Amino acid sequence: MYHLSNYLLEDVFMIHDMKPEDIIGAYKETTLDLYGSICRVVLYTDIETPYPDGKLIVSTTDTNGIITHVNQSFIEMSGYTETELINAPHSILRHPDMPSVAFKDLWDTVNRGEKWQGFVKNLRKDGGYYWVKATVIPNIRNGQVMGYTSVRRKPSRTKVEECSKLYATMH
Amino acid sequence: MPYQFTVSPDFTPDHLSGWYIFNTWLQKQTGDSFHLEMYDSFQAQREVIRQNKIDLIYANPFDAAMLVREKGFLPLVKAAGISDEAIIAVHNSSSISDVADLFPGIKVAVTEDPDVQMMGMIMMEAADLNAGNIQLNVYDSYVLVAKHLLQGNVDAGFFLAEAYNDLSNMVKKQLRTLICSQISVIHHSLMIGPRLAGRRDEIRGLLMAMNNDKKGNDILQSLRFQAWVDVDDDEMEFMIDLMDALAT
């Protein structure tokens, strides 16, 4: 995703500021620096959506981190429609509590052709959040990385609590 | 020399005769000789795959990566509307009412079925359980998994959802489902090896038309399938990527 020019991200793959009318409950506001010069105003609440038992959230992106496929669980948990998600940057889910170094590690790892795994707090369209245990792997076809598949599963509460504390120290 | 056909050992015994009837139908339709060989274990089946002795296989999703990437197999079809899902069940009288109630040191009955083991372990992760802090007791069949649960020898059991549903009502009444996966995109596939690769479109066409006549339909029903649907290379690669991502 870092290879893509900011011009493209702004004009082709729209990532909008969050809107107060979409938010459920009392919210805070902050501005996330997503791609150096691209900022997004995000509105976020303290409302957690529990990860549904037995389900996997699955998505694929191209090599620039632009979403190309989402499953129904992704749609339900993110609160966005499929139309809003396809062609959007995956960072549409970026929560301000997530340290940017975690995503740098993710991209450094998959760009080496390796699997990345970590615990992630994702931001919903309605300002709420949900925790996942995420695994991202490069999709290698004929020796070339064609994109990435991300699979999320239910994290344990112990891990969520550990990561909440750890991430708060990494900003 | 006939083509060698085999079926993933995790099929339920009720389907055994169905696969032999299917093999007869396939020979008639293609005009070729196919020999159906069933194996008792995944290890035994993988050994003959390693020796390049298999031409057609109804494959477990866990083996699909090896078949495609190491042995040059190609996907043909999957059963319509059927995906592999796992169930974690306990004895009806168990005090465990949620996955979160499961605790380190518990005994879990499983079969060798690799994708069910994987899905079961993923669901256990939410309770901070992993292969290192639980005891997996491996049995030859899901009926034995149920038996050991009923006898109180284990605390929980992993089942292929289809196999759990096939248990008798009397057994199911004494068990309780804690959790059932809803993954939807992991499935068995009928796949062909390199010797049959040139006939992929022909065989796929025959299979996808199978539900159009009464005889074909009857055979599908004996396998408890409604129809075959196409699995293209992209769908197979997607499933392999998914299995890679989950296999940790």
The top level CATH class name of chain A: Alpha Beta
Low-pLDDT runs of chain A: 1-11
Named at the architecture level, the CATH assignment of the largest domain in chain B is: 3-Layer(aba) Sandwich
- The rounded distance between the terminal residues' Cα atoms of chain A is 21 Å
CATH homologous superfamily classification of chain A? PAS domain
CATH topology of chain A: Beta-Lactamase
Number of structural units classed as domains of chain B? 2
> What is the averaged pLDDT score of chain A?
89
Count of beta strands of chain B: 11
Structural class of chain B: alpha/beta
CATH class of the largest domain in chain B: Alpha Beta
Number of domains of chain A: 1
Structure description:
The complex is a heterodimer of chains A (171) and B (248). By secondary structure, chain A is of the alpha+beta class. Chain A has a single domain (6-168), classed as 2-Layer Sandwich (Beta-Lactamase). Chain A has helices at 6-11, 72-78, 82-85, 100-111, 157-168, and strands at residues 28-33, 39-44, 57-61, 67-70, 116-123, 129-141, 144-153. In chain A, the strands form two sheets. A five-stranded antiparallel β-sheet of chain A has the order 4-3-7-6-5. A two-stranded antiparallel ribbon of chain A has the order 1-2. Chain B has 248 residues and is of the alpha/beta class. Chain B has a six-stranded mixed β-sheet with strand order 2-1-3-10-4-11, sandwiched between helices. A five-stranded mixed β-sheet of chain B has the order 7-6-8-5-9. The model of chain B has no long low-confidence stretch (mean pLDDT 94). Chain A binds chain B through residues 51-56, 58, 60, 71-73, 115, 117, 133, 135-137, 139, 141, 149-151, 153-159, and chain B through 99-100, 122-123, 125-128, 179-185, 237-238, 241-242, 244-246, 248.
What's this entry about, in short?
Chain A has 171 residues and is α+β, with helices and mostly antiparallel strands.
